[in-house]
Every structure is written in structure tokens, then in C-alpha cells.
Design goal:
The protein is mostly helical. It has one domain. 83% of the residues lie in helices and 0% in strands. The chain contains 8 helices and no strands. Helix 2 crosses helix 7 and helix 3 packs antiparallel against helix 4. The N and C termini lie far apart (39 Å). Its main location: membrane.
């Protein structure tokens, strides 16, 4: 995966970076923890500009988050609850889980989006309840952008600072991305097994 990410960014430049950050939010197993520090590394080598890396990566990330926001808007709370009632066994969620998640989001609101965009594994998911709860688009974009900017800025600066050591990162970053994917699948299977035991 690392070689593919490097190839996209090397050939497509900033457009490739924006594309990778967009799909990173739509398809989480492509981790920003790989993409953004690589952009910082390339900036340190003179191929990119560090401020532009941060701006472009943030724009791609916000675009991907907005996709899931609109998914939440279209689905809506009632439809999501009905979906969970019908397919919750395979999703490992219940209508009650949907209600609790929606109530929690309405209580935490904008802060949930701001903090959620800085949390690995939670960054993409936070956009769906924002849409389900009908959070206004303006505040959603403001808090999503702010949280994404902090997260992406930190990763980009890290890649920039570690320039001389970054090539060694490729030796462990590719297996790490597959470990993340395996962990996601493992958590799902564990929740599914626990649900079967309870029933």
C-alpha cells in the first residue's frame, strides 16, 4: 500500500494528495497517518510546499467527511433505526444503539465533530451522526475543517521534521496499514460473536 500511495503522490502531485485524503475518509483503511507524513517528507525534499500540503490535504479530508455527512442526512435517524432493527445482527448495532448515539451527538454537538476529527479510527465515523442529527452544514464544515487542520498539520510537520529518517518508515508503515485493516475486521468479528453469545 505504501508504494501505491507514494506512486500516486509522485505522479499526480497535489491533486494526488487531495485524492488520497478524499478516499482516506471514504475508505478508512487508507490511513492519513501514512499519506500526510509522506507529504511532509516530500515537502522537506523540495517536491512540495509544506503549507500547501496542509491546505490541500485538509481540503481533501473535509470533502470526504462531507460525503459521509450527506449520507447521514439522506439516511436520517428513523431510517437508520429501521435498518439497525432489520440488519443490526450483521452490523452489530441495535435500534437502541442508534438512539443512544444520536442523543450523545445532540448533547456534544460541535465539540464531538471538532475532537472526533482528531481521533484515528473515529475521524470518518463522526460525520455520519452529524448528518443524522441534522447538524447545520456551516458549523459542520467549520468544526470539521478546524479538527482536520490540527490533525493534518501535526502529521505533515512530523513528516517534514523526520525527513532524514522517513525512508526507513516505509519498512514498517505498509505492514502497519494492514494491521489497521485486520484490527477493524477483528473488532467486527468479536462484536458479532459477542452478539451471538448473548442471543
Amino acid at each position: 500500500m505504501f508504494d501505491w500511495i507514494l506512486s500516486v503522490m509522485s505522479q499526480a502531485g497535489y491533486a494526488g494528495l487531495a485524492f488520497l485524503m478524499l478516499i482516506e475518509n471514504v475508505f478508512p483503511p487508507i490511513p492519513s497517518e501514512v499519506v500526510v507524513p509522506l507529504g511532509g517528507f516530500l515537502a522537506a525534499r523540495g517536491s512540495f510546499s509544506l503549507p500547501l500540503v496542509i491546505i490541500v490535504a485538509t481540503a481533501g479530508s473535509v470533502a470526504g467527511a462531507t460525503f459521509w455527512y450527506w449520507v447521514g442526512i439522506v439516511v436520517g435517524e428513523a431510517r437508520l433505526r429501521a435498518f439497525a432493527a432489520r440488519y443490526g445482527r450483521w452490523l452489530t448495532i441495535s435500534p437502541g444503539d442508534v438512539d443512544r448515539a444520536s442523543a450523545w451527538f445532540r448533547e456534544k454537538g460541535a465539540w464531538a465533530v471538532l475532537v472526533g476529527r482528531m481521533m484515528p479510527g473515529f475521524r470518518t465515523l463522526i460525520s455520519v451522526p452529524a448528518g443524522v442529527a441534522r447538524m447545520p452544514l456551516g458549523p459542520f464544515l467549520i468544526y470539521t475543517t478546524a479538527g482536520s487542520l490540527v490533525w493534518i498539520g501535526g502529521l505533515a510537520i512530523l513528516g517534514y521534521v523526520l525527513e532524514s529518517q522517513y525512508e526507513r518508515v516505509g519498512d514498517w508503515i505498509d505492514p502497519a496499514s494492514w494491521i489497521v485493516l485486520g484490527a477493524v475486521v477483528g473488532i467486527y468479528l468479536w462484536r458479532l460473536f459477542r452478539q451471538e453469545v448473548r442471543s
